[in-house]
Automatic annotation (TrEMBL), chains A, B:
InterPro entries (alphabetical): DHFR-like_dom_sf, RibDG_C, Riboflavin_Biosynth_HTPR
Species for this entry: Virgisporangium aurantiacum
Record Gene3D superfamilies: Dihydrofolate Reductase, subunit A
Protein name as it appears in the record: Riboflavin biosynthesis protein
Gene Ontology molecular function, alphabetical: 5-amino-6-(5-phosphoribosylamino)uracil reductase activity
Pfam families in alphabetical order: RibD_C (PF01872)
Superkingdom of source: Bacteria
GO terms of biological process kind: riboflavin biosynthetic process
Bacterial bifunctional deaminase-reductase C-terminal domain residues: 7-182
Length: 194, 194
């Protein structure tokens, strides 16, 4: 059965972006996002296709649909219309911005995270659904529709920025599925226990 | 040469204790500390002496001195006077509470974290210094006197409590020294790069 998987690069102190991230300042101040994603790219900026990083990139691109938060998609202009050809579902109560009219594979879902996830799972078929964004992850946890977490934990303390996990009303137990140990990142995959 | 090593069990969302931790409520609300340290104990509450957990306990107990924050030591009443026979140094601007008069191996240091660390290193000789506590870790980072971090990352999202890393003015690069992968915890040891 297909799973919904949160994919995020995170510093040891829990940050996924710098301070003040918004569409006019993608990734926030101070190059935090570049630092957090360095493990997945060559020095010239291409996606790494070899070793553990290459396998993780292949797995991400083999997912069948994306559920991503509005803050995320607006900072990357909806990946110009799809994520490696995959449809993108954005839970949001507000209508989308004008660029979305040009993106037939981008769907704004106004009736909540569970609906967005159901639509994404239907689109993904037997492939996994990639989940992205801190706020969206939190809502997916609360609604019980997040199956796994793939954290790329980066050996850096950023000290400030946007946190992936910023408080939650419930305790959630996880199960370690797999750890990939490289100098650039500790890649830990968890299953969410419910 | 001996190193100063921060040893902490931390949830994936960055917590090391529950909300409202204080001497009258050790570890805070909700049993967070018990959950975070379960990896190191048997079901009857003894320290685990076998496997990776046993090796980590041995390494911790083989350190030669402890630098621990006042919040931590007051919640465990200074481990009744020593930490497995090791002297304990507590950086604090306020005079110690009355129980400390009975603890010859506990020293309150009023002139800052660097001084506390220097005294602990002198006491430890060629053994490592164990560092404990969130506030103390932060001060040790800022003063440049923390050499390594041993994080026991626990597969749980606690949602609330006291964070190990709660904002810092500087970015700090780390180097992954060693990862020990068990179902109960992902034990990651980092060197602090300066």
């Amino acid at each position: 059965m297909s799973s919904s998987v949160l994919y995020m690069s995170m510093s040891l102190d829990g940050y996924i972006a710098g301070p003040n991230d918004n569409p006019n300042n993608p990734g926030g101040d101070g190059g935090a996002v570049e630092r957090l994603h360095r493990w997945g790219f060559t020095e010239t900026g291409d996606v790494l296709r070899s070793g553990p990083a290459g396998e993780l990139a292949d797995a991400m691109e083999a997912t069948g649909a994306v559920v991503a938060g509005r803050r995320t998609v607006e900072q990357v202009d909806h990946w110009k219309g799809s994520h490696h050809g995959m449809p993108v579902f954005v839970p949001s109560h507000r209508p989308p911005g004008p660029s979305v009219a040009n993106y037939p594979l981008v769907t704004y879902v106004s009736d909540g995270i569970a609906s967005a996830m159901a639509q994404a799972k239907a689109a993904a078929g037997d492939r996994d659904v990639m989940v992205h964004g801190a706020y969206t992850a939190q809502r997916a946890f609360e609604a019980g529709v997040l199956d796994e977490i793939q954290i790329h934990q980066i050996p850096v303390l950023l000290g400030a920025g946007r946190r992936l996990f910023d408080g939650s009303p419930t305790r959630i137990e996880l199960e370690v599925v797999r750890v990939i140990d490289t100098p650039e990142a500790t890649h830990i995959r968890y299953r969410v226990l419910r």
